[in-house]
Amino acid sequence: MRDSWKLIALGALALALIAVFMTIDGSGNWDYILPRRSKKILAILLTGTAISVSTVVFQTLTNNKILTPTLIGLDSMYVLLQTAIVFLFGSATLTSMAKNVQFALAVGLMVLFAGMLYKFLFNREGNHLYFLLLVGIICGTFFSSISSFMQMLLDPNDFLIVQDKMFASFNNMNTDVLILSIVLVLLVLLYFYRDFKYLDVMALGKEHAVNLGVPHGRITKRLLVAVALLVAVSTALVGPVTFLGLLVSNVAYRLMSTFRHKVVIAGTVLISIVALVGGQLIVERVFTFSTTLSVILNFVGGIYFLYLLLKESKSS
Amino acid sequence: MKIGYLWVALIVFSFTSLFVGVSNLSPLDLFRMTDYQWEIMWISRIPRLISILIAGVGMSVIGLIMQQLARNKFVSPTTAGTTDSASLGVLVAILVFPAASPLFKIAVAFVFALGGTMLFMRILNRIQFRDPILIALVGLMFGGIVGSITTFLALKYNLLQSVNSWLFGDFSSILKGKYEMLYVSLPLIALAYLYANRFTIAGMGEEFAVNLGLKYRQVVNLGLGIVALVAAVILLTVGSLPFLGLIIPNIVSLYKGDNLRSSLPHTALLGAVFVLACDILGRIIIYPYEISIGLMVGVIGSGIFLYLLLRRKSYA
């Protein structure tokens, strides 16, 4: 199948799933159901796009297909923030805190952290992306060891509150926050759009890219800023979606017969939307909210990926 | 980082470790110990020292091997899917045998880790990997699938906090009768030393290795087996220790290059000295209480490794 047909098929599948999601078990109360469900769908579209774009870009920049932007420590920072609030001020503070304040606090801290990390490392002479990753891992480990220590000391009831924050969830979206995130993600994508066209060349490696006239250092920095912003917004909106990026990007690399970023990114976005909407449907209808979205995504997605790999080895 | 200094540090710290603790025991008592002091020594201090050394050496050595085999600096030994199988085992042990002794629970979890590793290898062997990245990818995906089962069950029975705190690194519960499982890893680490040259060659890629007359698959399987088993044993008796498997091998290879034969001793010693130092500090800071090793390693390690990384002005 040609790639464009694959993309169309994926798009159709995504639309069909969205249609099912919007209308299933409707029973007439459309005025009530539709706005609530469309909020979820919007959040899913937003997160799917942000995670997919940031992961593919990050993997191309680092030339490493098992990495996700999680590596620079933003997710651990988010979990630490939530844990620290509960640990220091009690779970009542976290649950009663206004959603937009929480969102602003989380995005602010994550962007501040990423900014400091980048600034510190880019100001040094002759630095390599490898260093950024190592420093990011170290900071991430620092945050997560403090948060797991705090979590051990938490009252089990308080822990349940933190536990909810540790998994991505599309329930209980706040409208203001949702609109704000959509605006933010669109702004980021628009502002950095002109840098995305260099990705195909950047994927050839630094030497080739520089030889072909791409300002490699500058574009890398700009794209890394874009990645951090996208991850910060989507994490603050729905929580850490760590594994999703890895899963969908690698499924896309297998499904698409080209490495051109236009196709791969479009494929990744569509696959993640299919995965998220489908997963959310299963969580809501099959498990009636008794488990989290990431459980379904990791289980089904992981098995599908292994299946793709096995099939590929058989045919070649 | 001369190897001599590391040896001196190792001996000094080991000696100190034996005489730090709540029960009064000073080096001066060494030649006229009371029965009580002997007991303290045999039941608590020596097992603790041994487990610290094994954990420090084991984790960093298998980290290095894993990175070599997967040809990827960002793969940690927990990537081999073992950790997730072991956590599932812990969960099952808590669920099914709530009253059993700790050693029995560890044994149950270990059986799960073994099974998981065997399954992982079977999947891997059915896949033709032209690309070494697939080792890590299959590990991550496999881990994701098993992890999702664990999370699903843990959420269902509200055991997430218990499983997490079981796996949080902690030496304070190491006593005679609880840590002996760790000895399983000693022959494996010795085997890793013997095979160091072969792992180095395997790290150059399948074609190259076969050309040099190496049974590539066999060596990779052996390496992954060692990695998985050692990781499982340490995880189950001591808990997870951040940094050891990822950052220590990276720091050493910055200084010593990628020939395992020359970098293994440094990696092993640095790992042991690092864990020892963190453990001693953790026992002194809030004496007579202690800070768990997971937190100490996370916090002190971040500082030390950031310093080590940033001190090097440039890196090609």
From TrEMBL, chain B:
Membrane topology: Multi-pass membrane protein
SUPFAM superfamilies assigned: ABC transporter involved in vitamin B12 uptake, BtuC
Alphabetical list of Gene3D superfamilies matching this protein: ABC transporter involved in vitamin B12 uptake, BtuC
Pfam families found in the cross-reference section: FecCD (PF01032)
Position of the signal peptide: none
Domain of life (superkingdom): Bacteria
Compartmental location: Cell membrane
Main subcellular location: membrane
GO CC, one annotated term: plasma membrane
GO molecular function, one term: transmembrane transporter activity
One of the GO biological process terms: siderophore-iron import into cell
Keyword annotations from UniProtKB, A to Z: Cell membrane, Ion transport, Iron, Iron transport, Membrane, Transmembrane, Transmembrane helix, Transport
Transmembrane intervals: 6-28, 49-70, 90-121, 133-155, 181-201, 222-248, 268-286, 293-310
Family to which the UniProt record says this protein belongs: Belongs to the binding-protein-dependent transport system permease family. FecCD subfamily.
Protein name as annotated: Iron complex transport system permease protein
Source organism: Cohnella phaseoli
Lineage of the species this protein comes from: Bacteria, Bacillati, Bacillota, Bacilli, Bacillales
